[in-house]
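agent> fetching stored inputs for the iron/sulfur cluster docking request
agent> found them:
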Amino acid sequence: MIDAPARFASIADFEGFARSLRSQDRTGTRSVRLCMGTGCQAKGAARLYELFEEAIESASGRGRAGNIEVKPTGCHGLCQRSPIVVVEPAGIFYQQVEEPDVAEIFRETVLGGRAVPRLLYQDPESGRKLEAAEEIPFYKVQQRIVLSQNGRIDPTKITDYIAAGGYSALVKALTSMTPEEVIAEVEVAGLRGRGGGGFPTARKWRSCRSAAGGPKYVIGNGDEGDPGAYMDRSLMEGNPHSVIEGMLIGAYAIGSEKGYIYVRNEYPLAVKYLRTAISQAQEIGLLGENILGTSFSFDIQINRGGGAFVCGESTALMASLEGRPGEPRAKYVHTVESGLWGKPTNLNNVETWANIPHIINRGGKWFAGIGTEKSKGTKVFSLVGKIANSGLVEVPMGITLRRIIYEIGGGIRDGKKFKAVQTGGPSGGCIPAEHLDARVDYEELTNLGSMMGSGGLIVMDEDTCMVNIARYFTDFLLNESCGKCTPCREGLAQMRHILQGITKGDGQAGDVEKLQALAEILSGTALCALGATAANPVLSTIRYFRDEYDAHILDRRCPAKECRGLFIYQIDAEACKGCGICLKNCPVDAITGERKAPHVIDEQKCTRCGTCWEKCPFTAVLKV
Amino acid sequence: MPTVTIDGHSVEVERGATVLDAARYAGIWIPTLCYHPALSSEASCRLCMVELDRGDWRQLVTACNYPVRHDVIVYVMSERAQQARRGVMELLLARSPDSQELKELAERMGVKGTLWPKVTESQRNCILCGLCVRVCEQIIGKSAIGFAGRGADRTVAAPFRQPSEDCIGCGACAAVCPVGTIEVRVHKDECEVEISPFKSRVKLLVCKQCGAPILSTQVCEQALRNVGWATCLPMQACSQGNVGMGRKSAHATFWPELRKRLRLCPKCRRLQTAGRVASP
Amino acid sequence: MNQDSSLIEQIVERYDRDVGMLIPMMQDLQAECGYLPTDSLRALAKRLNVPLMRLYAVATFYASFRLAPKGAHEVSLCMGTVCYLKGSAGISQAICKEFKVAPSGTTADRLFTFTAVNCVGACALAPVMVVDGKYYDGVTSESALEILQGLGPAEQAAQADAKEAAE
Ligand SMILES: Cc1cc2nc3c(=O)[nH]c(=O)nc-3n(C[C@H](O)[C@H](O)[C@H](O)COP(=O)(O)O)c2cc1C
Ligand code: SF4
Ligand code: FES
Ligand code: FES
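agent> prediction call returned; pasting tokens
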């Protein structure tokens, strides 16, 4: 499958092969890049792939194909508009492609070199049809480093990665840098962990390198448990070799021969692609004993999670790798000294790892030139929720939330009003409109009562009740708590109890203070960071949306009209056409009215089930 | 040896000892629930919180597993430490409001009661300290019980919530339980011992003389196995004086001998011995 | 029974009898059987010489393990933040009501096992429902019920499964 010697016996052999791949003459090659990320697959990309293949086949039957290839790639980012198809060499970007469109794209663009305007992205402001991805505002503001090859290379082909410059950083490290120099370069870059905490990567590596004892382990954290975040998934699916190369370089720097990548159970495709990538790397001697003929040996094994959010936490992850329930343990002795099986272990997020090859190739100084004083480089976010352009974005640190949400994300959907953006996953916080000019930076987000987290940016609009969101996250965390320590298990249960009361209309004066007291206990006494940060969603919503709590508790009213029972339904007499649909569907016969005349809801009988609101074809039922 | 200064009192301890060790050495009381000197520290109850001086800031840590690696200053009675312990205790009281043991400990800590309602289920006041689980695994070597489920659903249970086949009915779990959740019940009629609430049952060895239950047959066997192998190997003391015999046969002779002795309850054995002494 | 023990043997050998690989072994067992049969867990514990309790603890800690047989189809509804914001709680209620199934339960006719999961990583398409590995995007209560009503009857799917397994 790989057109290469079974195993490269030396670095020189590999470099020769890489050079030949990179200098291949591709003029005249036309290629159709088809996103096969989860989003596009859900929208039928696999079938599109088949159709393109068939089209190529029949064209070559007629002698017209020349050099045409269809290339399945990882996520392109603009998942909102999936499936996405890009036709090279012109780089014409098609979105929301459907099966019948394939023939036209093939005829017009692939063979004819002309765009099909119908399938292009239309700029909502100017109304212009944009041909290239780079022109689309969604992509224009981004700076793609980690994702630079996502959507360009076929993740199942190591040759694709090598042709795009892959594994050159490993070669550089092995041939011209000592392990110490590698660490120093990462230090100059100022890279900090992308998994949430933002710990300086070089410092972690150095501690692990100098820790006594062995063997030493390195781990890639691909557990990505934050709901609403899928950066790591897209990275592992779209460019698995970049993670592997990063881990190889890290292992060389730390002095490790064994690595693990822990992948979330819900990500079968990521597991598959990583497995393929690892076996291809093993095949040609980039993993295994004596890599490229050097004295450096390193191998990677994939482990799948079992559906437990807490397993993203470092000590829980290691317990899971040891075949036990994922319960965290105290970190008074750090995992870099005593981690997996009690041995020095270096854990980094997969995005952190994927940054490494770029830093080695282009230098720490270059990397440190991007971002803010303390937060360097770029960060990948999954920009989702009530936003016009949902998708995966990579932006330089220091960019404001406003630019991400409005310039890249295109603002709020359906002309609604922005209310808050939730960052940092379930232990993060909700940032309100007045702080939209905050910059994406570890410290700045923490000061706002949220955190960088692994990269979910969930946008909420006026219809989202902030108390209910706090309840949602508390619920989530209670379900995902391992239950080992008292404050997390009991404290979160108490918090949920109070929040449930508030959202049901049973709130009591003093509830907010009780929540704050529980938050204090949690942050001070919980065993692991899950419990210690679990109150963030509650605290941040109290901090910025106290009025919503008060409205629920004091006025028994939900301002966002989301909490059932804390608002009523009324029929707008002007919009009502008297069609009778609501009347027929109301389960308690609370609606009366003659046909063709405005209907009325009997507030006494109404159970606020919302059926009429859902069924009314004229949106004449209002929540008030 | 590093020095630990606790609320102004200094003690020297071995490197690697815990803050709790140091406090006990210094005669300072720190409440604990999930700690037992014979078992590994899991620090799960979070009751033993103390404040650690980090120079420019203070950190709450659990005394039972914070290792002393160099000189440290800790505060047991600082406002923040007391408040942290109180907070944890109040949550435990909400979980197991009927536990007399818990109330007594709370009182000793100066915690009057709890403002939290009961919102989590606890099996007979179980506070999930895990001592039973650890003693069964680490001392008895059986792991007949363990934690099942997670989060608020976490419970101590036997596999499949059925009587455990691995349980030897030793009752060590009941002995270490700080809130009396686990009970050893003797069913005289069936001649069985039950470890409740796990419903595990084991046959009892009964006295040949008076019929009183002596101990669980499995504990007996396990003890014999352990003791048998350990003392029989040097072989000087084997009942028949067979020195230099192979492992197996030495064991084979030792076992029945011990067995014989175990046929009587302590009382009857005493009587028998006394009788033998009286009339040789 | 014999077949069962050879399956355990295969799985254990696949991971070099490494006790650290207990979770992957149990995952493979579940992939083969659709759930974790009690007897197989016993056999696995015995084979690895680890207490049965350890396997039970693992099986009840991780949400993806099942101790009861699953239905003919597997339905997961995403309850991640984005899907929740876009109404997946209502969809879940509708499914539970229509098919009289509890979250993480199986319908009485064994048609499908229904699980609510936390984010399937396709948040741009929220709300998302996954049926036997196929992703459905932007589902509503109506469309979800429609998809589920269209599922083949239990026996058919079971036969297809058996056929697949035989091949
Ligand atoms: C409850 C909890 C869940 C976590 N989940 C993840 C995760 O899904 N992915 C991840 O990379 N880090 C996660 N982390 C952070 C890890 O513990 C760890 O800090 C990180 O993987 C270290 O890598 P980094 O330094 O490269 O960020 C989680 C932490 C906690 C407390
Ligand atoms: S804080 Fe929560 S998740 Fe962490 S150890 Fe305690 S119970 Fe487990
Ligand atoms: S005694 Fe220290 S945490 Fe329980
Ligand atoms: S929140 Fe549903 S797919 Fe992520």
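agent> quick read of the result: The first strand of chain B starts at residue 3 and ends at 6.
agent> awaiting further instructions
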